[in-house]
Amino acid sequence: MRMLALGGSRTRYEVVAYFRSLDTVFFTFLFPLIMLGIFTAAFSASGDIVVKPGQPGISVGAYYLPGMVAAGILLSGVQNLAVDIAREKGDGTLKRLGGTPLSPVSYFIGKIGQVFTTGIIQLVLILVVARLFLGIALPTDPGRWLTFVWIFVFGIVTSSLLGIALSALPRSGRSATAVVVPIVLILQFISGVYLRFDQLPGWMQAIASVFPLKWMAQGMRSVFLPSDFVTLEPNDSWQLGWIAVVLGIWFIVGLAISRVTFRWIRKDS
To answer: Could you tell me if 70 and 216 are in contact, meaning their C-beta atoms sit under 8 angstroms apart?
Structure first.
């Protein structure tokens, strides 16, 4: 109970610190929303996206909305935590925390709690802007929203653990952004966030299928896109079972690496 209480207290601290960091708010919180607006404005003139000629289509903004929601999960978890924890190692914050009653588990709870809180706020903001300002219709089927909830929650937890694990890669706090951001950016381009996944080369689709972002984006498309768009997916299926399997595998990988690599101070310090 004390561990959970400390984790809850740490969550409040992390949320306040998050919104005080303007670069973090811009590149992880507002970035998906800004990109959705840019894509909608830039490509709307080309007309709706259709599955087959002559059939009703959807707007460019509606098509890109699921990918931006998935990207927001990745940015909030992987990029945000990887850079933030690497910086805390570099400036001595973790070393100081190691001398307090705060346990690594409570620290992890605080970080994951922060990602959950900011991720939900970010999601609400994206959906409100999409509906009220971009005119994008949102699902009305409760079953779709149930699918959305488990993919969102599973994605947030998995991305958070992967962010904690990835924070061990940068050699210093100063190099964290240069190491982490390119990885996240490449994943967004090959996973169907900025480019239509069905139009990517087969080898690129195969690489993307190894990583969780492709599956989160596909799951979000199953929620927000019309049913006939499933024909643009691999095997003409949303593959919800495989989404759960891949996220589960990466959850275990992230947890294992975090347990092995995390320490209050660097091993080579």
So the answer is: yes
